[in-house]
Amino acid sequence: QVQLVESGGGLVQPGGSLRLSCTASGSIFGIYRYAMGWYRQAPGKQRELVAAITSGFSTNYADSVKGRFTISRDNAKNTVYLQMNSLKPEDTAVYYCNAHYGPSSSNYWGQGTQVTVSS
Q1: Count of beta carbons in the 10 Å neighbourhood of residue 50
Q2: Angstrom distance (rounded) from CA 30 to CA 52
Q3: Is 109 within 8 Å of 4 (Cβ atoms)?
Q4: Do the Cβ atoms of 23 and 5 come closer than 8 Å?
Q5: Residue 52 C-alpha from the chain's centroid
Q6: What is the DSSP string of 39-107?
Q7: Dihedral (CA of 30, 50, 96, 18) sign
Q8: Contact at 8 Å (CB) between 5 and 20?
Q9: Can you give the pLDDT at residue 77?
Q10: Which of 16, 32, 98, 107 qualifies as a cystine partner to 37, CB 3.0-4.6 A?
Q11: Parallel, antiparallel or unpaired: strands 10-12 and 113-117
């Protein structure tokens, strides 16, 4: 069993910042082999990729968050982060952490954390 637990969500005003964390535990034997990603799903919309980081620390971002969000990982802590700055109301969504390991087709999701950007 593998568990991904997100934290750090909440209510923030437009222009504010939040940092999300996702910590892996269980039979994952360390996240260093995994590509890690943050996805989000707003009400009535499909889940979309926000940011991803490979095992080699390459990153990619959705166009809508480039320059505002930063994904990082600390393999020693089995944790991936999403620093979100200059938040906008359209960033409001449930944010999900994902771990993916291609050679075994392993794919895990966290339970999600709510981010609400509102004045």
Answers
A1: 22
A2: 17
A3: yes
A4: yes
A5: 8
A6: EEE-TTS--EEEEEE-TT--EEE-TTTTTTEEEEEEGGGTEEEEEE-S--GGG-EEEEEEEEEGGGTEE
A7: positive
A8: no
A9: 93
A10: 98
A11: parallel
Give the C-alpha separation, 119 to 111, whole Å. 26
Q: CA-CA distances (angstroms) from residue 75 to 5, 56, 98?
A: 15, 11, 15
Tens of pLDDT along 9-64? 999 999 999 999 999 988 777 888 999 999 999 999 999 999 999 999 999 999 99
Q: Tokens 């593998």: give the residue.
A: 2
* Amino acid sitting at position 117: V
Q: Are 100 and 32 in contact (CB under 8 A)?
A: no
User: How many whole angstroms separate alpha carbon 59 and alpha carbon 51?
Assistant: 7
Query: Which tokens hold the place of 60?
Result: 């990619």
Give the model confidence (pLDDT) of 63-110 as tens digits: 999 999 999 999 999 999 999 999 999 999 999 999 999 888 889 999
**For residue 34, which of 97, 83, 82, 102 has the smallest C-alpha distance?**
102
